[in-house]
């Protein structure tokens, strides 16, 4: 990565103002998945270990610019304290203003403070310069470790870098480094697996990956639109009629570029969209006239698993079927298992594929499981992420 990182700063006597992504799922004030908090620990521990005073800031949910206790980060301070072996994490009820400034000023070397939800202010998402400046009063150096929010040009992810020297944290460095290297310099064969609900969400990713990959495996709801583009009658399956022309163009473009774009050859067809729906495996040449495709079929699984087995770099975004329903999870789980066996670089990006890999208990087997859904998608589309652009370039 050509950006400065926390390693490039002498932290003695300095306050680090650190943007983290603590946007974690919560139920009744209890954190149900702390992956994103754990992912930020290396940066927090490093800064504290270097003697910096550490001021953490994050958003939680989408409170729409108003204070709302449901979205308070207070429970996260306690959870973080436990993850830091009982180290005190103080909490400021506000992310700017007198109280926040007083709490930041009273920090001793190595202390950690967490600020209240940035999105209690509408100015955060508007990237308001006065709000960014108010945040900047709380530190000497700005650290962005919030990869999951790096695709947002907000005051805490971009604007604040106008007022303080801005460097990357370790999580940011790792995410950008691993995914960037895979895109720029992949070990071959390079295979991308793209699934999920809609082609329209993934056009940018497919266009960016086609010239780079040896094989592109398509599954999930979006495969239906590709199959419809090839003339198959998909009955009641999720087909985006508006995107059929785009799917045709992508198929044509793959052919021209010599990329091996694979579509399912068999599907699991269900009578209706329900966990207990009657279902059967069907070949493309005997598609039923009613019902819907909710998973890739076993022949497709076998073919995709063979391609994955030979790969040296694999990137996966989007489930192969409606994996939330066990009857239609086989394709997604098989891809996860095939990736777990790869002798090479394996990267999973995107909210639902990450959920699937965790459901399968295979996250540990991957080279990298991204902490960003939207952010990893935009990165794989080849877009510049505002939260990264704002950081100081390495000399
Ligand atoms: N054949 C299908 N028909 C309808 N929905 C599907 C199908 N295959 C997958 N899905 C749904 O797509 C959703 C995930 O899509 P998406 O949000 O694009 O993925 P991601 O979050 O990984 O980027 C899941 O909720 C899944 O149930
Ligand atoms: O959870 C997040 O995004 P993701 O669900 O796309 O991974 C980030 O914290 C960004 O949140 P936002 O999409 O409300 O800006």
UniProtKB/TrEMBL annotation:
It catalyses: (2R)-3-phosphoglycerate + ATP = (2R)-3-phospho-glyceroyl phosphate + ADP. CDD domains: Phosphoglycerate_kinase (cd00318). GO terms for cellular component: cytosol. Its EC number is 2.7.2.3. Its main location: cytoplasm. (2R)-3-phosphoglycerate binds at residues 36, 119, 152. ATP binds at residues 202, 324, 350-353. It is found in: Cytoplasm. GO terms for molecular function: ADP binding; ATP binding; phosphoglycerate kinase activity. GO terms for biological process: gluconeogenesis; glycolytic process. Pfam families: PGK (PF00162). Substrate binds at residues 21-23, 36, 59-62, 119, 152. The keyword ATP-binding applies. InterPro entries: Phosphoglycerate_kinase (IPR001576), Phosphoglycerate_kinase_N (IPR015824), Phosphoglycerate_kinase_sf (IPR036043). Keywords: ATP-binding, Cytoplasm, Glycolysis, Kinase, Nucleotide-binding, Transferase. It is an enzyme of class 2 (transferase). Pathway: Carbohydrate degradation; glycolysis; pyruvate from D-glyceraldehyde 3-phosphate: step 2/5. SUPFAM superfamilies: Phosphoglycerate kinase. Belongs to the phosphoglycerate kinase family. Monomer. HAMAP family: Phosphoglyc_kinase. This is Phosphoglycerate kinase. It comes from Alicyclobacillus ferrooxydans. The gene is pgk.
């Amino acid at each position: 990565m050509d950006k400065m990182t926390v390693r490039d700063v002498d932290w003695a006597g300095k306050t680090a103002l650190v943007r983290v992504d603590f946007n974690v799922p919560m139920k009744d004030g209890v954190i149900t998945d702390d992956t994103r908090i754990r992912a930020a620990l290396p940066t927090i521990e490093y800064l504290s270990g270097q003697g910096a005073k550490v001021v953490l800031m994050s958003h939680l949910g989408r409170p729409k610019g108003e204070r709302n206790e449901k979205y308070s980060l207070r429970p996260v301070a306690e959870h973080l304290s436990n993850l830091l072996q009982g180290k005190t994490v103080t909490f400021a009820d506000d992310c700017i203003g007198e109280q926040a400034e007083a709490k930041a000023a009273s920090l001793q070397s190595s202390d950690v403070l967490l600020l209240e939800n940035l999105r209690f202010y509408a100015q955060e998402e508007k990237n308001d310069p006065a709000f960014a400046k108010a945040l900047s009063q709380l530190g000497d150096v700005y650290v962005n470790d919030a990869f999951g929010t790096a695709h947002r040009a907000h005051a805490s992810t971009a604007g604040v870098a106008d007022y303080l020297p801005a460097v990357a944290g370790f999580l940011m460095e790792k995410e950008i480094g691993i995914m960037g290297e895979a895109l720029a310099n992949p070990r071959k064969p390079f295979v991308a697996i793209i699934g999920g609900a809609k082609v329209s969400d993934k056009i940018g990713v497919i266009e960016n990956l086609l010239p780079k990959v040896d094989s592109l495996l398509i599954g999930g709801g979006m495969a239906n639109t590709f199959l419809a583009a090839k003339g198959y009658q998909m009955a009641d399956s999720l087909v985006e009629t508006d995107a059929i022309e785009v799917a045709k163009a992508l198929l044509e473009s793959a052919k021209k570029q010599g990329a091996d774009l694979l579509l399912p050859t068999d599907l699991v067809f269900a009578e209706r969209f329900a966990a207990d729906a009657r279902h059967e495996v069907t070949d493309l040449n005997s598609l039923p006239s009613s019902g819907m495709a909710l998973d890739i079929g076993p022949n497709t699984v076998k073919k995709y698993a063979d391609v994955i087995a030979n790969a040296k770099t694999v990137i996966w975004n989007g489930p192969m079927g409606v994996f939330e329903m066990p009857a239609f999870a086989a394709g997604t789980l098989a891809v996860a298992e095939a990736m777990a066996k790869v002798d090479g670089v394996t990267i999973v990006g995107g909210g639902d594929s990450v959920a699937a890999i965790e459901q399968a208990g295979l996250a540990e087997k991957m080279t990298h499981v991204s902490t960003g859904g939207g952010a990893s998608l935009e990165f794989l589309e080849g877009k510049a992420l505002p939260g990264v652009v704002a950081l100081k370039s390495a000399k």
